[in-house]
Structures are given as C-alpha cells and as structure tokens.
Write a structure and sequence with these properties.
This protein is α/β, with parallel strands linked by helices and 260 residues long. The chain is built from nine helices and six strands, in the order H-E-H-H-E-H-E-H-E-H-H-H-E-E-H. The longest helix is centred in the N-terminal third of the chain and has 22 residues.
Length: 260
C-alpha cells in the first residue's frame, strides 16, 4: 500500500477538532446577545513582521469581516466595534490617511452584505468628509432581513458620548420650557440612556479586548456598567475563532449578578 507523500498538518487538524468541539459545547441560550470588541494590536502585529503600519491596519480590517461572520454563525445579534478613538486622532497624518482609506473600504464590504445593518458611533466632524458621508449613507440603509446589527465606533470617545447625551437632554428640556432645576429634580439613569449613541439598543453582555491590555480606554463607559469582560493576549489580526469560542465559553460559565 503506497503512502501519501503529502505531509499531514497535525496542528491544523487538532485546531480544527478543538474548534468544532468548543462550538458544539456552547449552549445557545448562554451566547451573548450583544458583544463589544476593542480591536487592539494592529500596529504591534505589523511590527512583529517588520511590516508597515498600514499592513497591520489592513489585517485588522480583514479580521473584522471574518469576526462578523463568526458572530452570524453563532446567532449573535449586536456587535459594537471600537475601531478609532478620539485619542487615535492624534496620530500622524500619514497613518490616519491610510487608516481612513482602509475603514472606507471596510464600509464598502459591509455595504455589500444585505443582511447587515450598520450604526455609526462617534463624532463625524472629526472624520474626513468622504468618510463621514460614507458612514451616513451606510447607516441610512435598511436591510431586508437583518441577521446582525453592527455599531461602528469611529472617532469615538466614551466621555464625549456622555457629554453629548447630557447636552442633548438639556437642549430638549430647554425646548420644552423646563428649568435646569426641574431637570435636576427628575433626572434618572434612563433619561441619559435614551440620548446615548446606542439608544434603543441592549447594553453589551460581553466586552472583549485583544492584545493583552486590561483597561476600557473609554469604550462604552456607560453601557458596560454590568458587562462581563474578557481580555485576550492575542493581537487583533491574530485573533482566531478558537480565541473567540474560548471567550464565549468563559462568559457562559459566569454568574451575572448585575450589581446585586
């Protein structure tokens, strides 16, 4: 009997087996409805290979599209992606120009999927006009059959979001002829929540941050009050489906108390 000369990729086979085993073990009713992801580590990933920063950002964008596919497979309904913070706007103009172009291309790819709805979070005035317009056009599109809702945090800052929400609340109160004392006397958590960028959406059940960093960096500061957090050592472009399934397994094993 002749033996095949093709080498057997044992690690790949083992990963595939482990991935399928993790997926089968997930209980559908314990999969989070809304996941927030801090897509961190693109630049460090590029440095590992002595590659230009642009290549790291492109690899990160490709991973976003792959990740959304995983989410759709698992029935996750809402995903919020932290793509560009207000602090990131201080990077070099060359890097920002390249990053904006990559983000714009990613929006084009998302637009090609008729089952994805997109909502923009952040300050559009901080973005180039072409990108702000592209975001506006994409968010106005209504899918015929929504399989997943994606919030894109671009030019986003958590503190700014809360300030914007309070400002909008006060402007509404002023238009209604209410005094500031009246507003203060009746103000509730729900009053502010209805002016957040994610108004009308459920708060995230799980927030994932890649690259080994263990901090929020202003991401969904209000909405994540009772979220579960999962920190992964993998840099975002190297984040595998196995890493994601491990995060979901960890989440399923937690007892959520919501402050009680």
């Amino acid at each position: 009997m002749a033996l095949s000369s093709s080498p057997v990729k044992l690690p790949g086979l083992l990963y595939g087996y482990y991935e399928r085993r993790l997926a089968r073990a997930l209980e559908h009713d314990k999969v989070p409805n809304h996941i927030g992801v801090m897509v961190d580590g693109n630049r460090r990933w590029a440095r590992q290979f002595n590659a230009p920063t642009r290549q790291g950002h492109q690899a990160g964008a490709d991973k976003i599209l792959e990740f959304l596919g995983w989410c759709q497979e698992l029935g996750i309904k809402v995903v919020t992606l932290y793509m560009l913070s207000t602090d990131n706007m201080g990077r070099s103009s060359e890097e920002l120009d390249e990053l904006m172009a990559i983000i714009a291309h990613t929006l084009d790819v998302l637009d090609a999927d008729a089952d994805i709805s997109v909502h923009a979070m952040g300050a559009p005035e901080l973005l180039p006009d072409y990108l702000a317009h592209r975001l506006s056009t994409l968010t106005a599109r209504v899918p015929a059959q929504e399989r997943i809702h994606v919030n894109l945090a671009i030019g986003y800052g958590g503190r700014r979001e809360i300030v914007d929400a309070v400002s909008e609340l006060l402007l509404e109160a002023d238009a209604q002829g209410r005094t500031m004392a009246e507003v203060a006397g009746t103000l509730t958590v729900d009053d502010i929540s209805r002016f957040l960028y994610t108004r009308g959406q459920p708060d995230p059940d799980l927030v994932i941050r890649t690259s080994g960093e263990q901090r929020l960096s202003g991401f969904l500061m209000w909405q994540s009050a009772y979220s579960e957090f999962y920190f992964c050592e993998a840099l975002w472009p190297a984040f595998r489906k196995i890493d994601f399934l491990r995060a979901l397994r960890d989440f399923a094993g937690r007892s959520r108390r919501f402050g009680t």
